[in-house]
Amino acid sequence: MLDDPRTVRVTGDDTAAVFRRIDDVDAEERPAAEHGEAPVPEAYVWCNLTSGNGSRALWLLLLPFMVVNLAHWMRPTSEGRRPRTVRLYGLLVRLAGLSLTVLLVAAACEVALDLAAWQCAGTPACAERHTWLGFLSPSGSGDGWWSEPGRRLALAALVPSALTGLLWYLSHRTWSAYESQPPPPGSDGEGTGTDGEGGETYHSALGRPGFWYGRRLVARLRAAHTAAAFLTVAAAVGTAAAREDRRPGGPALLDALAPLFTLAYVAGALVVVWVVCRRGRTENRLDHELDRALVRRLPVGSLVLLALSLVYACSSRPEWRSAGRLPGDRVFGALTLTQCLLVVALAVVAHVLHRTRPHPRAALRGLAGPAVAMLACALGGVMSGGVAQRVSDWLDGTPRTLPGPPVLLTWQASVIPPLLLLLLVVVALLARRTLRVRRAEAAEVEREHPAEPADAARTRRIATARAMAGLTDLAPRVLGIVAVATLLLGAASLLGAELTEEVPGDAAEGAPAALQGAADTTQACGSWLIGVGFLLFVTWGRRAYKDPSARRTIGILWDVGTFWPRAAHPFAPPCYAERAVPDLTWRMATWTRATGGRLVLSGHSQGSVLAAAAAWQLEPSARRRVALLTYGSPLERLYGRWFPAHFGPAALSALHREVDCWRNLYRLTDPIGGPIRLPGDCGPEVDRAPLKDPLAYGRTALHPLPAPILGHSDYQADPAFAEERRLLLARLRPEVPGPRPIEEGPRPVGKTPSALRRGPVEEGDDPPQAPGSSGRSSG
């Protein structure tokens, strides 16, 4: 990145750091004659925040939590209007996130408590096939201590409880490691509003002092979700024992305790929901407070209730026998119905907000957030249903002797084949459109090179690259189709499960033989597809754990998914920007304050998003010393469309006004980067005309061999990059003095993050700063 094998880390640690060339380490302290007007580049490297060690691959299992967290930030822009509607949007997404936690923990309870401890261990034939369950199976004499169903359930409850503890530990540990970096003191956050969820002004909310420091909300949500998970496990054990105690002839003492436990579960659930609804994000100020009593007492209280439920279930009930399924079949139906209603309500709220200030390029006309929330719920359902179905098949074997998982999970499996068929149709339509666009682009490529000898294969490759790059702009339509289909199929599965419970026997009993056969086939295929998909999911994660190249691919996914703070779900993968943005802000603020110099901040791909976020966090006096150079940037093409409240036209226009100058480079063959598209006269000033790709159509004196089609990579290889950087250095305001020598303090204070480039190691690089007597040097 720095074009020199001799580099040194000037500040930072093994997780993220700033590097310089060895010859430039003391640039600020040497005479200007040694550097002249040459820029001094620095590179900020954040690769270990997204694709460092192998444990990142395990974050794939947290994918539903990450996706629902993205839905929070996809809120349509309101520009300070309808603050209550904005808060309602955030509340609905947080409730959807809470439902996902309950769903996945309930799935763990289904596997450990119902399928293993209740059904398999209670069935002699199944227990004989799995000897590790032998000590839980009722013995011939019936005197095995663990053979009673309540004790089996209490022991099995340790599995979902351990899962909950692991999620709490990962959330707490990653917060301390990644997201606990406060921004520099004195940040005035020019883009302020009334509240983090109360709407934004014409400046981006990313400039608020507390935007990248959500410690208080994450701690509250972590306590609430941990408590909800423990309450789910406690209810799974306690309600089974309470149902047995309510039978005639049961022990009077236990019969009296049953309603008390039920009341405790309901009260705990209400407290958890109140905590989730009570407070959103606080962004207008740097909130160092922590609700310590709530954060500590809520999980501990739920854990105590879980322990009491386990003791209650372990009480002796000699006549209790396990038969059928546990009394939790309707839990999954209630969760699915709740999620569907939340998504519909979220869509209504998003539509109201979008109409307040319509953004013509907003994805799905402002409905991207509800669509992504629906996708998160679908992922949670697929993961929970896949695990339950596969474990049931593994435990039961042939012939089938167990009742199996709840009916709804079977119906959810049956809707997977129709959804895949719909996706195949969508893929076919996209392929047809791509071919049509490729023909049009081929004609355009020939018109761009009238003097070149015709080369049909070369023209076809360039046209294909352009046509494939354009598929990115169709992603909202695909997501909308999938979201609507998922919502309708989910409603159909709910109806099918309800009819199955009301009609004894098979779900399609009484129907024509062809329909019954189709229903059985789709259910069987769906069950296997869910299982295979989940196995592929885990296999990909395992491969990424061992293979650095695959781990780097997952790192690209995290670049977008984990850029945003955890505002809706505390168990989502950690937000790397809460470490990277303060790093960059501290670096630029301390350097400009110490030297009085100017700098060009350049970023490639996701690095350009970090560059914009860091520039927003600077004080106005420091921001006016910054020039932006972005290339392959998704700032408008992806972030502006999918996150209009934070990267919409008003926010990007304000950033253009507040920095000294800004230039953006892009290619028509780039599937990620694109123009900034600022409104008015400032748009052409920011966006340079699309760069040539490839640099030469045929063989020339400068390119005797065929030039490659670069697409999203190697922007610095284009001569336009060096030209635009030179022009930015020349355009920086001459009245701003050049860098002055640093008089005191450690040497690393004298460097600034001059580049951010998403490369093979996810580094950042770019220019400049050079101490020069003319006062025109930059850093």
Largest sheet: 4 strands, parallel
Uncertain segments: 187-202, 503-511, 743-754, 757-779
Percent of residues in helices comes to: 55-70%
- Secondary-structure content class: mainly alpha
Radius of gyration: 29 Å
Our count of helices gives: 25
Instruction: Assign an overall shape.
Output: globular
Count every beta strand, where a strand is a DSSP E run of 2 or more residues.
Answer: 7
N-C termini distance: 16 Å
β-strand percent reads under 5%
Strand ordering within the main sheet? 6-5-4-7
Instruction: Round the mean pLDDT to the nearest integer and report it.
Output: 82
Number of domains: 3
Verbal overview:
Keywords: Membrane, Transmembrane, Transmembrane helix. InterPro entries: AB_hydrolase_fold (IPR029058). It is a single chain. The protein has 779 residues and is mainly α. It folds into 3 domains: 180 residues, no CATH class; 247 residues, no CATH class; 138 residues, no CATH class. Helices cover 56% and strands 4% of the residues. A 4-stranded parallel beta sheet has the order 6-5-4-7, with helices on both faces. Strands 1-2-3 form a 3-stranded antiparallel beta sheet, with no helix packed on it. β1 and β2 form a beta hairpin. α2 packs antiparallel against α11 and α3 packs antiparallel against α6. The longest helix is centred in the N-terminal third of the chain and has 38 residues. The radius of gyration is 29 Å and the shape is globular. The protein starts with 6 loop residues before the first strand and ends in a 22-residue tail after the last strand.
